[in-house]
Amino acid sequence: MTTKIFLQQLSNGISLGSLYGLVAIGYTMVYGILRLINFAHGDLLMVAAYTAIYGITLFSLPWYVSFPLAIIITGIIGILLDKCAYKPLRDAPRISLLISAIGASFLLENLALVIIGGVPKAFPRPEVFAKVIEIGGIRIQMLTIYTPIITLILLFGLLYIVFHTKVGKAMRAASVDFETTRLMGIDLDRIIAFTFLLGSSLAAAGGVMWAMKYPQVNPFMGVIPGLKAFIAAVLGGIGNIVGAVLGGFLLGLGEILLVAFMPEMAQYRDAFAFAILILVLLFRPTGIMGEPLVDKT
Amino acid sequence: MLQVDDIHVYYGGIHALKGISLKVKERQIVTLIGANGAGKTTTLRSIVGLVTPKSGKITFNGKEIHRLKTHEIMRLGIGISPEGRRVFPNLTVLENLELGAYHRPPQEFKKDLEWVYSLFPRLAERQKQLAGTLSGGEQQMLALGRALMSRPQLVLLDEPSLGLAPLVVEEVFETIKAINEQGSTILLVEQNAMAALHVAHYGYVLETGRIVLHGTGEGLLKDERVRKAYLGE
Ligand SMILES: Nc1ncnc2c1ncn2[C@@H]1O[C@H](COP(=O)(O)OP(=O)(O)OP(=O)(O)O)[C@@H](O)[C@H]1O
Ligand SMILES: [Mg+2]
């Protein structure tokens, strides 16, 4: 393999990995506060992608209006997801919550299937992202360059919110102790809703970029990236935001480089990701950056 | 100020509070004493809305609060240092105090913080330290300080002296007295009946979910039954 191809693959890996990371943040944030693996999280990619398409085709909005709008709407759908599927179960055993999450995931997928249909829709790719440039002899699509940059900007914005604002402080408090957080006069339900808003918006941003990268949108498009992002979150240390992005980068790079070095392994790409999940769970369940999380009462 | 009226609380089949009534008047220190499992913590949890009484009534400044949500009750002007301290271990001392002031006007924050630091100078020294790494006594001070950061009219304290060295216990009770003299009303739950009755204006003795005795602090200290059961004489 030439250096050129290697660099090409490297940039692909970074870009794919940053998408995993962006989606992984939502898993990790919701887990941090509710100790719940929100299995419906990946489907929000699909919700965002369809919303963005309809913004452009039905309402003739320009992409720079339609994309952010899709992100906001998906964020709000995230809040509704919590209100309908999880909030009624706040005091129920953890396993009920998990079952509800799986149910919510199937519901979203099948609603899309019934309403929109299973035929893949083409996702519009604005020229800014589709343009291909040449750097040092390698040809890169602008999307590949923008994706990790956007991811890092969103990551730093999120870290600012979590570590330097009042609501962020309340989120960190709620992640260890619901009762005492409420005793501070904090409306816990609003803090949880805000967590879903943030996590779902980031997933939506990931969904829009994912759809530009693989411009075939169908009701089940969120399943595989959702699972991969979940693996990334576990690899990075579930509950840890920076860990989620790091896990995403590592997983994306790992996958792409595996294929690059061993093309005959290409069809084992997904198996490789799940093998990583199993290994992490067996040998280091807290992931790379995670600390053992206390079980909440 | 606070009035609890014949409340009954059940945990599943367990009848934990069997008709508790008590009154806390403005600027008083009122103490609630009793053996393990008597229902002291449950009484405080009912006041702050963490458990809902099956029957009975709780009013604060004339307003019924027993059907409100916890955060709504706290915003009326109640602060609590809960059983077992419950500081946020992953947050710094300063951040814990900031959360105590969550619903206070931000321009008051500096003044309130200075006041709490004057009560607990130790907290000022350690403001950047994670609360989880504080010693037990320091955590207790933080829990107290955090409760005071909202400038509550009524402060609920659940066993603030638990697990502290005798000298520190004395300090804590001195602080409670000082806070009260500065205008806060206090409902104090204690195992340390002797010390609690010494600082309290009024006291209630709880036994298996019922109030069996009440009277002034001094009166209870002299009471034959109290001396036998709680002061070990
Ligand atoms: N969550 C719960 N579920 C079931 N029973 C409970 C629960 N919390 C308290 N109880 C029971 O209610 C009774 C009163 O408990 P409570 O915690 O109010 O006692 P306490 O007076 O604060 O005791 P201590 O001095 O040991 O803290 C006890 O018998 C206890 O076992
Ligand atoms: Mg107790």
TrEMBL record, chain B:
Domain ABC transporter as annotated: residue spans: 2-233
GO molecular function, one term: ATP hydrolysis activity
Domain of life: Bacteria
Entry keywords, A to Z: Amino-acid transport, ATP-binding, Nucleotide-binding, Transport
Biological process (GO), any one: L-amino acid transport
Keyword hit for ATP-binding: yes
Entry keyword Nucleotide-binding: yes
Similarity comment: family membership: Belongs to the ABC transporter superfamily.
Official protein name in the record: ABC transporter ATP-binding protein
Organism: Thermodesulforhabdus norvegica
